[in-house]
Amino acid sequence: MTTTRVPPCPSTARPRPRLGWRLRFGALSLVWGFSFLLIKVGTEGYAPFQVTLGRLVFGTAVLGAAMALKRERLPRGRRTWGHLAVAAFFLNALPFSLFAYAELTIPSTLAGICNATSPLWGMALSLVALSEDRPTRLRVAGLGIGFVGVLTVLGAWEGFAGLDVSGTVMALLASLSYPIGWIYVRRTLAGSGHSHLSLTGGQLLLATLQLAMITPLFTSVPRSFPVLPLLAVVALGALGTGFAMLVQYGLVAEVGPTTAQTVTYFIPVIATVAGVALLGESLAWSTPVGAVVVLAGAALTQVRRGA
């Protein structure tokens, strides 16, 4: 759901996509923005782990079909699969499950805004884990501004009154999981020589297997299959995971990761509009104001030296 980056691989000639990148950028923003609404609807009929497993199954199916059409193979080598297993946990299995559990008790709008903190966590972690990624005063200021925005969204001055702490913490931990995963990928899989599609297909396949082992331990087979939540899970997997990743990687290849990453700033806006308009979720003034501050801080953390 948050912006997806991929390890560098050897460049190859690519045919120019039929749709302009701005249209695909807009489609990606909508799909990921509506993902939080789909999670909320899905958890109204199924357990969080079941929603996550379904999401991964349908997302993997889309990527598997794309790999078959392009005649791509899954990666080879035990070391590569070992690294992909870790990436699958931090980039898919863990955050997807945390968001699903979080939305049992918090609005989809708040979950979408928590997702926007991922660049803030990423910048903070990179100061420790990536020696080549040195901070500037502007980026440090962005980090501080962003977390002020988080406190505003959560209503810290009111003592977090009316806030479900456990659900909010899970949503923030889900957002933290993404940069942990990407830092790991950057250190272990960058320059592996495998294509983006091959690595992602393997990653989603492993995440699906991880959830397939965990889900039976915490849930039982559903006694009924309500249609609307089921359709939400199918859309969440096929569109919000499989299709979205294909679009994202195409954007990275065409316009570069910096431009592609700005999709992060549109996701909470769309998630908020969808939650309020379609689910009737309430919205205090501090939520949109804090979200703007979070996004401003996140944008500053992405400014590179000399930019």
Description:
With 307 residues, the protein is an all-alpha fold. 71% of the residues lie in helices and 0% in strands. The protein has helices spanning 21-43, 48-70, 78-102, 108-115, 118-129, 137-154, 165-188, 196-218, 227-255, 257-261, 267-279, 286-301. The two termini are 27 Å apart.
Task: Please summarize what this structure is.
By secondary structure, the protein is mainly α. It has helices spanning 21-43, 48-70, 78-102, 108-115, 118-129, 137-154, 165-188, 196-218, 227-255, 257-261, 267-279, 286-301. It starts with 20 loop residues before the first helix and ends in a 6-residue tail after the last helix.
Keywords:
mainly alpha; 12 helices
**Gap between N and C termini, in Å?**
27 Å
Tell me, rounded to a whole number, the average pLDDT. Answer: 86
Helix and strand sequence:
HHHHHHHHHHHH
Q: In percent, how helical is the residue content?
A: over 70%
Secondary structure tally, helices:
12
The total beta strand count reads 0
Q: How is the main sheet built?
A: none
